[in-house]
Design a protein that fits this description.
Catenin-bd_sf; Immunoglobulin-like; beta-catenin binding; glycoprotein; alpha+beta; repeat; Cadherin-like_sf
């Protein structure tokens, strides 16, 4: 124990010595040093008017004593080497600091400046750099400014007194938390003066307008308010803002009826729109919710006979009758109608008045009421196909205005003409069997009949009743096939499905029982039915059948064993991918191609026959009027018209060459005998007739000369031509008359043509037509006919080819 105590004392002594050493070391470090930089106070006021440059301070460093004249001062930072430039400077030798222009504190609140003292010759720092901030003293040079100097706001006239929807915000950019930036907002003026508007301060920068009282849109629709913000600086500065309030109309005026009472007369059982219009007046702005009227029944329409609507344009109330009014029940009715606006009525003080109302007095005028059936809809149930003559229905009718005994009954609807009606009693009797499967029966097996009861009132009134006849089904239809023809792909399957149907309903229809319709051994060897029960059956071929058509008789029994004998036609064929008969498709396509080919062949044959006909008829001539001078060629190379000649006159004096002879020999009956001077008497009518004709289709019209008339015909495809001369028809008639008299033996009448002697004047000159002389020239002149264009050349070539193929001799 003594040892432990001794150890503790030694430790405490050691700690005490250590503490003394530490305190001594600290005293060694905290040696006071003397300040080396000295400067006078730097105080700058913003917007100082000067004059400039202006001395603002002087710098001093005690180390200049050691360097004497070998030092210089330097300044840097904001206003010197950093923006804004050119604000401060320093005298390098004396250390005097200058300001060169006014400073706006709101633009630059402070300046961070650094001072250095350097060795003039080496440029090295003599002492540490001195840096500090220059604070600019604020002055009250900025007034408070409204963020929105012009404010416009819409105010509903029914706005309760209190806050207006206008907030005023202003700021002052002078130094915060000073009198220069503290301001108040106040109201300078308002127009109109009522209601009283005030400014409520929310915080240092925001205020709001308030009012006491009520706005009236009819009295004042716009307010102009001027507010001012002024600070507390010296001198005090301020600014203003203008607030414009537009007062919007609201429902501050209730609608009022223009009339106090209306009178109306109506016939009973009348349903009509717009029987009465009720007008109101409202001082609020038209076409606004505070102006639009809402009409309602206060009294008198408990049974819902009437309806009220509002005309959106005129704001009138429209009264309509939507249910028939019975005179026997009600003769007079009084309606009380109220009106209010879509927007609730606003009253500045007090409670709103009750809605305005008006009375409508309605008188009901009695008319002839229609007869009323005891039941307007009657259901009757019976089996279809029952024997006619059955009484289906006898109506019961009442009429408050007429004698029931005078009512007559008529059929208004009986589409199938199955019933008749007794005009006195209305008894409905069937006249034909009713078929449930008739198209006049609906899907619910109901046949509808409408009857009418007409009274003898003025005017007559008609009541109606609908009789619905529910027809029960019987088994009156046999089963049959939906489709009597089927295709079996013999190269794929040996089975086809046949579907049956029965017009009757269950239990007189399917499912059906199918069986083969005969005891033929061949039939049973070729076909069987599997399945044979159901809505459809499978017809299976028991052996491979040659492709072709097969008729298979079937018997189909319904659930009541009523049998239907039918025959299904089965086509067995070779099918392709889509189960179409290939033979059918090939035949169809070949028939289609053959049909198209036949059509084209028929057209080509028709065109060929037409061309052959045109070419064959080229030798025929078309009659033309002799005096037609159009499209003619006139011979201008006749010199003198020929010599007077007493030789016998020929009607036709042809000149021929080898081509003529070939053509004459080929004509058969037109061959020229030696004594005929080249003209056969049987040939003269044919040739003379051709004066006014030309070949059909060759495109070459006849050409005539005038002295004497002559025609030239040239065939472009046959290669021959003729020229001939004709006298006029007048001379031709005289010549024929003279010839007839000579034949009769009277020669004196033709003495001018008797032999006559003349003095010999040399060799006799043969007097022929000058056509011979001009023939070659005419041939040259007609060469243009050989080139009439590609169309005529093509046609001519076709005709020549046809002539050569048929070996026609021209």
């Amino acid at each position: 124990m003594k040892t432990v105590s001794l150890l503790l004392l030694v430790a405490l002594a050691a700690l005490a010595e250590a503490g003394k050493g530490s305190r001594h070391a600290k005293r060694e470090l905290l040696v006071r040093s003397k300040r080396r930089w000295v400067l006078s106070t730097l105080a700058i006021e913003e917007e100082d008017p000067g004059p400039y440059p202006k001395r603002i301070s002087k710098m001093f460093n005690d180390k200049i004593n050691a360097h004497k004249e070998n030092h210089m001062y330097r300044i840097s930072g904001n206003g010197v080497t950093e923006p804004p430039l050119g604000v401060f400077s320093i005298d390098e030798e004396s250390g005097v600091v200058f300001a060169h222009k006014p400073i706006d504190r709101e633009t630059h609140k402070d300046f961070h400046i650094k001072f250095d003292i350097l060795d003039k010759y080496t440029g090295k720092p003599i002492d540490n750099e001195l840096a500090f901030d220059i604070d600019i003293k604020d002055i009250n040079d900025n007034p408070p400014i409204f963020l929105h100097p012009k404010i416009q706001a819409n105010v509903k006239e029914n706005l309760p007194e209190g806050y207006l929807p206008v907030q005023l915000q202003a700021i002052d950019i002078d130094k915060e938390q000073t009198v220069n930036s503290t301001f108040n907002i106040s109201l300078i003026s308002q127009y109109p003066q009522d209601p009283k508007i005030q400014v409520y301060r929310i915080d240092d920068r925001m205020s709001q307008l308030t009012f006491k009282g009520c706005f009236d849109h009819n009295k004042a629709r716009k307010y102009e308010i001027i507010v001012k913000a002024n600070d507390h600086g010296t001198p005090s500065l301020s600014s203003t803002a203008v607030v414009t309030l537009d007062i919007l109309d609201a429902n501050t005026h209730p609608p009022k009826f223009k009339e106090e009472k209306y009178h109306l007369e109506l016939h009973e059982a009348t349903i009509k729109h717009d029987v009465l219009r009720i007008a109101v007046e409202d001082a609020d702005t038209p076409q606004t919710p505070g102006w639009r009227a809402k009409y309602s029944f206060i009294k008198g329409n408990e049974e819902g006979y009437y309806k009220l609507e509002t005309d959106s344009e005129t704001n009138e109330g429209i009264l309509s009758i939507i249910k028939e009014k019975d005179y026997e029940k009600t003769t007079f009715t009084t309606l009380v109608i109220g009106v209010e606006n879509e927007e609730p009525l606003y009253v500045c003080t007090g409670s709103p008045p009750p809605p305005h109302s008006v009375q409508v007095m309605i008188k009901v005028i009695d008319i002839n009421d229609q007869p009323e059936f005891e039941k307007e809809n009657v259901d009757i149930y019976q089996k279809e196909e029952e024997e006619p003559g059955k009484v289906l229905f006898t109506p019961k009718v009442r009429d408050v205005d007429s004698d029931v005994a005078n009512i007559r009954y008529v059929l208004l609807e009986d589409k199938a003409n199955w019933v008749t009606i007794n005009n006195k009693t209305g008894k409905i009797t069937s006249t034909k069997r009713m078929d449930r499967e008739s198209p006049f029966v609906d899907e619910n097996n109901i046949y509808g009949i409408i009857i009418g009861a007409i009274d003898d009132g003025e005017p007559p009134a008609t009541g109606t009743c609908t009789v619905r006849v529910h027809l029960g089904d019987i088994n009156d239809n046999k089963p049959r096939l939906v489709n009597n023809s089927n295709v079996m792909c013999g190269n794929k399957v040996n089975k086809v499905m046949v579907l049956a149907k029965d017009l009757d309903a269950n239990p007189f229809s399917g499912p059906f029982t199918f069986s083969l319709g005969g005891d033929s051994k061949t039939l049973k060897e070729e076909w069987k039915i599997d399945p044979a029960y159901g809505e459809e059956a499978g017809l299976i071929s028991l052996k491979t059948l040659p492709y072709g058509n097969y008729s298979v008789p079937l018997i189909i029994h319904d659930q009541q064993s009523i049998a239907g004998h039918v025959t299904v036609q089965v086509m067995v064929c070779n099918c392709g991918e889509k189960n179409f008969c290939r033979n059918q498709k090939a035949n169809a396509s070949s028939l289609a191609a053959a049909g198209i080919g036949l059509i084209f062949a028929a057209l080509l044959l028709f065109l060929l026959l037409l061309l052959l006909f045109v070419c064959h008829c080229g030798k025929q001539k078309v009659h033309m009027d002799y005096n037609d001078g159009n499209q003619s060629l006139i011979q201008y190379n006749q010199e003198g018209g020929g010599s007077a000649c007493m030789a016998p006159t020929n009607v036709l004096k042809p000149t021929t060459n080898q081509k003529d002879q070939y053509q004459n020999q080929s004509k058969g009956p037109g061959k020229i005998p030696p004594h005929s001077n080249g003209i056969d008497s049987s040939f003269i009518p044919e040739v003379s007739q051709s004066v006014n004709e030309y070949p059909i289709g060759l495109g070459v019209p006849p050409m005539y000369s005038t002295k004497p008339p002559s025609g030239i015909w040239q065939g472009s495809s046959s290669g021959y031509y003729k020229s001939y001369s004709l006298w006029s028809q007048h001379h031709l008639g005289d010549h024929i008359t003279g010839k007839l008299k000579v034949i009769g033996g009277n020669h004196d009448l033709n003495s001018v043509y008797q032999p006559h002697g003349y003095a010999f004047e040399g060799q006799e000159t043969k007097c022929l037509s000058l056509d011979e002389l001009s023939f070659h020239n005419l041939e040259n002149d007609l060469q243009f006919l050989n080139d009439l264009g590609p169309t005529f050349k093509t046609l001519g070539g076709i005709c020549q080819q046809s002539i050569k193929e048929k070996n026609i001799q021209l």
